[in-house]
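My main concern about presentation is that the manuscript never shows what a single data entry looks like. For the editor and my fellow referees, an illustration may be useful. For illustration, here is how one protein appears when written out as sequence plus C-alpha cells:

***
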Amino acid sequence: MNEREANKEVRYKEILTAGLDLLVENGYAAFKIRDLAKRLNISVGLFFHYFESKEDFYKTLIKIGISSPMDLVGQILEKGTPLDIFTMMANQIFDMIARDKFTAKMFLLMHQTAINGDVPESVKAMFFDFDTISPLVPVVRKGQDEGTIKSGNPKTLILTYWAAINGMAEFYINGDCEILPMGEWLSDILARH
C-alpha cells in the first residue's frame, strides 16, 4: 500500500470512528454530516468521497457490527467444550473492547439500532437478518445433553449471555466499569451447578 492509499485508509477509519461516536451520542435522527465534518475538521464533500449518504454510512457501520461477531462465532464454534466456547467468545470480545473502544461502541450502536424508531428500514432489515443465536443453539443443546449447561430454553440462555456482554460494553463506555469481567463469569451464567 502506498502512502496515498495509507492516508486514505486512515481518514476512512477516522470518519468511521468519529461518526460512530456521534451516532452513539445522538442517535440517527440527530446525526448530521456537517457535525461530523466539523469534529474532524474536514469538508462535507470529503465525507461523500467515502459514503453516498448518511444511510450508507450507517449501513457500513452495521456491516462491521455484524461481521465481527459472526467471524468470532465461526472461529470458535468447534473449539473445546460448550462452556469453553462461551468462555473463549467472552474473553475475545472483552479483549477487543479493552483494546479499542470502537468495539464497545459498536455493541451500543447495534443495541440502538434494534430499539430506535428513527433508524432507516434498510438498516433495520440488515440488523434483523443478523443472527448470533441460531449458530449457538446446537452448542447449548450439546452442553445440556452432557449436563454442563443448565436446562432451559437455549435461545433464552444465549440471549442472557449476549445481554450480559452488551451490558458490560455499555458500562465500560460509560466509565462505570474499569475492569472487564473474565469470560468464565459469563459462561457461568450458562453452567449447570
